[in-house]
Design a protein that fits this description.
The complex is a heterodimer. Chain A is 35% helix and 23% strand. By secondary structure, chain A is an alpha/beta fold. Classes of the chains: A alpha/beta, B mainly alpha. The structure holds adenosine-5'-triphosphate (ATP) and magnesium ion (MG).
């Protein structure tokens, strides 16, 4: 394993300088990529939702994934986050972490955060408590029983509340938020987890234009320090943040490249954009 | 002192502690005193009344245990009667040994074993003459069974109605097992005719009063333990699992561990309640494991108000108070009444009696 130029360039600082000394639990991004999906197939009663899907995401990248309904975008996220076991294929987080051998909470601890297509927050808890629950810390039964919030943690939550512009709603039940606010809260919860890779399934659905714009800014500010995979149908939104776009169709990658190239690709227009 | 005071004020506010203090005073002083007054005295409390309150306190502990698992973690168990009965049987085995050779057949074996023509205690009765071992079994038997059952059920991600049905089947299966004479627990008669506990005669009013007080104390401790749990972050995680388990898992919580923990704890609480129940009422038999019994436990919680702890306490009191009156006045109608109560509570009082009180208080 030799040190590569991209490895250093995309380093987040700590272990990349010494590719051979990756600590267990650390994500080894010495080859530049943070996520490898290779030959993944998922069938539901014979129907192939994913069909030998392969894809790699670079560390610090912001990747947009588009595709018509039923293309397999959510299923792909289910596989990466441990919710669905594929019939074939491999999924690696960095060079060393085999995600297919891990449970959902283990994958979350390894540094992958996920926003669901349907916004999912803890509705009977307050906005503050939602963020507190998501915050990165020991999440075992005993530590939860003995946990007391520290001043530092309060500050972190306050910071995130500001970030997602929900300061004034900190004390109300999350179930009372608007759809767009729930989306933001869920994104805030991901940020509290401090993941290396964020996967966001249709994050701007149900948001106002202003909210969508702010979300775009937020994602752009996150890229670099974090890697992001954003699944979206909203083309304007995708154009506003996209660097590299992957088009999924019938469970496999149809095209991949910069947004302007993709937009003019005939096959893409046929299955998706032109309709 | 500071941290200790902070600990207590965190659990309940002044009003809560005052109410709890009042309850403790009544259970530990007022009722025992009135109970021990001479029977001619106009304020003397009857055996029947004290036993009824003692029983209801045991049921109230069960209601707390049910609320923990159902109200907070969202897992509806319809088999908690089993854990209650296992705690009761664990204590009952010891009480049977305390009878000594005073049974009908003057044997060191319980009467039913003599009747079955057994010469020796079966191996699983070993050590049953020791009180400390009985206490240990009260905790371990329901605890272990719940742990093993929960381990498989939660690992297979069995949820909702399926889980409830399996717990019904479990308690039913155990009831059939305990009905058999060969099982060695007295068949359908179960254990009864107890004489002593730790050498104290059970017929003695002082022993009865002491058991009553101990039950009251355990009820208070159980309430405080539950309260500590539900206001901790663990309690919030449980509610998070109830509301959105997927989100909780992707937030890094091993929800299976949490469910297993609270499930086992809840079973142990039921076991303790059963162990306190048996010496007071003087009998334990397999009917405690009947599916209907476990369903009734869920009704106490639904009627009182899920996820409030105090609500289920009231629910247990209310329903059982009504039951003791009904079964005397209109014995044939009790089950209809219970069914109606349950339907009314689910239709009109989603937050139970406590929710109703809350609403009334806000209106005035
Ligand atoms: N659990 C399941 N059982 C059977 N079929 C499923 C299951 N989950 C997904 N599918 C099917 O797999 C295909 C891919 O679904 P998926 O949800 O991944 O699509 P998607 O790209 O996220 O679509 P959308 O844009 O509508 O969210 C669909 O045809 C869907 O019906
Ligand atoms: Mg989808």
């Amino acid at each position: 394993m030799t040190q590569t130029a991209e490895g250093t360039a995309s380093s987040s600082g700590d272990t990349v300088g010494m590719a051979h000394m990756v600590r267990p639990g650390e994500v080894d991004i010495s080859h530049g990529a943070i996520l490898y999906v290779e030959g993944v197939t998922v069938s539901f009663d014979g129907f192939k939702a994913l069909n030998k899907l392969s894809l790699a995401i670079d560390a610090g990248e912001l990747r947009c994934i588009i595709g018509p309904n039923g293309a397999g975008k959510t299923t792909m996220m289910d596989v990466i986050t441990g919710k669905t076991q594929p019939d074939a294929g491999t999924v690696f987080f960095g060079q060393t972490i085999d995600l297919l051998k891990m449970s959902e909470p283990e994958i979350a601890h390894a540094g992958i955060g996920r926003k669901f297509q349907k916004p999912t927050v803890f509705e009977s808890h307050t906005v503050f408590e939602n963020l507190e629950l998501a915050m990165k810390m020991d999440k075992g039964v005993w530590s939860s029983l003995r946990y007391r919030i520290s001043a530092e943690q309060r500050d972190r939550i306050a910071e995130t509340l500001e970030h997602i512009q929900l300061e004034s709603r900190a004390g109300i039940a999350a179930g009372l938020l608007s759809h767009g606010q729930k989306q933001w809260l869920e994104i805030g919860m991901l940020l509290m987890q401090d993941p290396k890779l964020l996967m966001l399934d249709e994050p701007v659905a149900g948001m106002t234009d202003a909210e969508t714009e702010r979300t775009a800014e937020l994602f752009l500010s996150l890229a670099g320090r974090h890697s992001l995979i954003v699944v979206e149908h909203d083309m304007d939104f995708v154009s506003s943040i996209a660097r590299k776009v992957t088009v999924l169709h019938e469970g496999r990658v149809l095209a991949e490249g910069p947004m302007d190239v993709i937009q003019n690709d005939e096959r893409v227009i046929e299955v998706y954009l032109g309709r | 002192m500071g941290p200790i005071v902070a600990f207590f004020t965190r659990l309940y506010g002044p009003r809560g502690w005052l109410t709890l203090g009042g309850f403790i005073a009544v259970v530990l002083f007022v009722i025992p005193l009135l109970r021990l007054l001479p029977p001619e005295h106009s304020l003397h409390l009857s055996d029947y009344f004290v036993l009824l309150i003692g029983k209801i306190m045991c049921y109230a502990m069960v209601a707390l245990a049910m609320d923990l698992i159902w109200g907070y973690a969202g897992i509806l168990s319809l088999g908690h009667g089993l854990f209650f009965a296992l705690g009761g049987y664990s204590m009952g085995m010891y009480l049977m040994r305390e009878i000594g050779t005073e049974g009908q057949y003057r044997s060191h074996l319980p009467d039913y074993m003599v009747f079955l023509d057994w010469k020796e205690f079966p191996w699983y009765w070993a050590g049953s003459e020791y009180f400390w071992l009985a206490v240990l079994k009260v905790i371990l038997v329901p605890g272990l069974l719940a742990f093993v059952f929960g381990w498989f059920a939660f690992r297979s991600r069995i949820k909702g109605v399926y889980f409830s049905i399996i717990t019904q089947a479990l308690t039913f299966a155990f009831m059939l097992l305990f009905f058999r004479n060969d099982t060695g627990f007295g068949g359908n008669n179960g254990f009864t005719d107890f004489k002593r506990i730790l050498g104290f005669p059970l017929a003695d009013p002082v022993t009865k009063t002491a058991l009553f007080m101990i039950t009251g104390l355990f009820l208070v401790l159980t309430l405080l333990a539950c309260r500590y749990l539900v206001i901790s972050k663990l309690g919030r995680v449980l509610a998070a699992i109830r509301d959105a388990e997927g989100r909780a898992m992707f937030s890094g919580y091993k929800t299976r561990d949490y469910k297993l923990f609270v499930w086992t704890l809840s079973a142990v609480m039921c076991g303790i309640a059963g162990a306190l129940y048996v010496p007071q009422v003087g009998i334990i038999n397999p009917s405690e494991m009947s599916p209907a019994n476990s369903i009734e436990m869920a009704i106490w919680v639904a009627v009182g108000g899920r996820g409030t702890l105090v609500g289920p306490l009231f629910g247990a009191g209310l329903v059982n108070g009504a039951k003791s009156w009904f079964t005397v006045a209109f014995p044939d109608f009790w089950l209809y009444f219970l069914g109606c109560l349950f339907i009314l509570a689910t239709l009109f009082l989603p937050r139970g009696a406590i929710g109703l009180l809350d609403r009334l208080r806000r209106k005035t």
